[in-house]
Amino acid sequence: MTDPRMRTAKFGLGDVVRHRIYPFRGIVFDVDPIFDNTEEWWLAIPEEVRPRKDQPFYHLLAENAETEYVAYVSEQNLVPDTSGEALRHAGIAEVFERDATGIYRIRDRHPN
């Protein structure tokens, strides 16, 4: 039986996104159909901007002007990044390869 709270994710693995409010962008490397982090994490977000739990949440290899990090972001706070600029996050090369058109694809993990 399908959980009625689940819906199709708007973004997929390898999609480059940016935060709707905060100045960072990143690449999706995992998706949770609904919130799957700690209650403590969720409550630490100021109530006036706290996202709903009943939506996809994305694990991002994220970066801003100063640093690179892993972010966990609700779908309501993400928009597509259409800049076409390559990401610099050091973890990307381990998971993705960028093709000639600028699209990030999951690396083939099969041994040669």
UniProtKB/TrEMBL annotation:
Matches recorded under SUPFAM superfamilies: YccV-like (SSF141255)
Gene Ontology molecular function terms on file: DNA binding
Keyword Nucleotidyltransferase: no
Keyword Cytoplasm found: no
Keywords of the record: DNA-binding
Occurrences of domain Hemimethylated DNA-binding (ranges): 8-107
InterPro entries hit by this protein: Hemimethylated_DNA-bd_dom, Hemimethylated_DNA-bd_sf
The protein's name in its UniProt record: Heat shock protein HspQ
